[in-house]
Design brief:
Blueprint (H helix, E strand, L loop, with lengths): L2 H4 L2 E10 L2 E10 L7 E5 L9 H12 L3 E5 L11 H4 L2 H16 L8 E6 L1 H13 L3 E5 L6 H8 L20 H4 L3 E8 L8 H9 L1 E9 L9 H18 L2
Helix pairs in contact: 2-9, 4-5
Length: 245
C-alpha cells in the first residue's frame, strides 16, 4: 500500500442493530468518490472484522473507489452477544442482511453492493447473495454445508485458544441458495484440510456466468502464505472493480 493509497480513504466506526444485538464495524470510504459502491465482508467462525485479509482488501478496494465495511458478527469482537449462545449460520446471515440494510441506508454510500465472505462467512454470503441483491460476490474457503465444521468441533480439532462453540448450532446447507449466483469469484487453498477444495468446485458448478474459480497453490485454510495473501487481495479487489463497472 503506497502513501497515496493510505490517504485516499476515510475510516468511520459504525454500529447497527441485528435483532436484539448491537453490532460494530469499520467503514472505509474512498475520498472524493460520491455514492461509491460498497463491499461488505463476513468473517470466519473464530475471526472478527479485524482479520488481516479484510483490512488489506478494504484498503485496496478504497484505492479503486469502492467503500468497504468490515464488522464483527454477534458474539465476536466488539459486538454484543455470548459467542457460544449466538453462533450459528442463521445468526450470521441475519447479521449480514442487517449490515446490508444499514450501509445502503447511509448517505455516504451508493446502492451498488458487493459481498465478501471467508470460511463460515463465505457460507453466510452464499446464503444471502441473491436475497440481498448483491451485484458482485467473492468467497474464500467457503463450505456449502456445516458437516466438516461440526465434525472438526466434535473431534476437538479447533485450536484451544478459541472460544467454546456448540457444534449442534452449526449444521447448515446453503446448496440451494447458491444456485444461480452470478458474477462470483471463488478462491480456495488447494491444500485446505478444514474445508475441502471440492467445495469450491461445487460452488462453481452451481453458479452462473460470469464466474471464476482460483485455487491458491499450497494454500491452507488460514491463507498462511504471503504470496497467496497478495494474490487474494489483487484478484478479489480486481473482481469487485470490474463487477461494479
Amino acid at each position: 500500500m503506497t502513501a497515496a493509497e493510505e490517504t485516499s480513504a476515510t475510516i468511520q466506526e459504525i454500529s447497527f442493530a441485528s435483532g436484539e444485538f448491537q453490532l460494530r464495524g469499520t467503514l472505509h470510504l474512498p475520498s472524493g468518490v460520491p455514492s461509491p459502491p460498497v463491499v461488505i465482508g463476513s468473517h470466519g467462525l473464530f475471526s472478527t472484522g479485524n482479520s488481516p485479509k479484510q483490512i488489506a482488501l478494504a484498503q485496496t478496494c478504497t484505492s479503486h473507489g469502492i467503500a468497504y465495511l468490515r464488522f464483527d458478527h454477534r458474539g465476536c469482537g466488539q459486538s454484543d452477544g455470548a459467542f457460544r449462545e449466538v453462533t450459528s449460520l442463521d445468526g450470521r446471515r441475519k447479521d449480514l442482511l442487517s449490515a446490508v440494510s444499514a450501509v445502503l441506508a447511509m448517505e455516504e454510500t451508493g446502492s451498488a453492493l458487493g459481498l465478501f465472505g471467508s470460511s463460515l462467512g463465505g457460507a453466510a454470503v452464499l446464503s444471502v447473495a441473491r436475497e440481498s441483491g448483491a451485484a458482485v460476490v467473492v468467497t474464500y474457503a467457503a463450505p456449502l454445508t456445516g458437516a466438516r465444521i461440526v465434525e472438526m468441533l466434535k473431534a476437538a480439532e479447533a485450536p484451544v485458544d478459541h472460544p467454546e462453540v456448540d457444534p449442534e448450532m452449526l449444521h447448515f446447507d446453503v446448496s440451494s441458495k447458491t444456485e444461480g449466483i452470478a458474477n462470483i469469484l471463488i478462491l480456495h487453498g488447494d491444500s485446505d484440510r478444514i474445508v475441502s477444495p471440492s467445495e469450491a468446485h461445487r460452488i462453481y458448478q452451481k453458479a452462473r456466468m460470469p464466474k471464476r474459480l482460483i485455487l491458491l497453490k499450497n494454500g491452507d485454510h488460514a491463507m498462511g502464505l504471503a504470496e497467496n495473501q497478495e494474490k487474494f487481495v489483487r484478484e478479489a479487489s480486481s473482481w469487485f472493480k470490474a463487477g461494479f463497472r
